[in-house]
Amino acid sequence: MEYSDIINEIKKGRIRPVYLLHGEETYLMRKLERAIIDAVLTPEERETGLFILENDPDPSYLTSLIETAPFFGGRNVVVLRETALFKARKGTSEAETGDSQEKEDDGTNRLLGIIARIPDYSLVIFSVSGKADKRRKLYKIIEQQGAVVEISPPKAKDARQWVVEKLEELGKRMNPDAMEQFLGLLSMMPKISVSIIHNELEKVALYVGANKTIARDDLAAVMASAPEVNIFEMTEALSRKEIKPAIELLQSQLSAGEYPVKLLGLLAFHIRRLWQVKELATGGMNAKDIADALKIHSFIAERLLRQSRGFSADKLKQALLQLAGADRGLKSGRASSITLEKIMIDLCSRES
Question: What is the pTM of this model?
Answer without folding.
Answer: 0.67
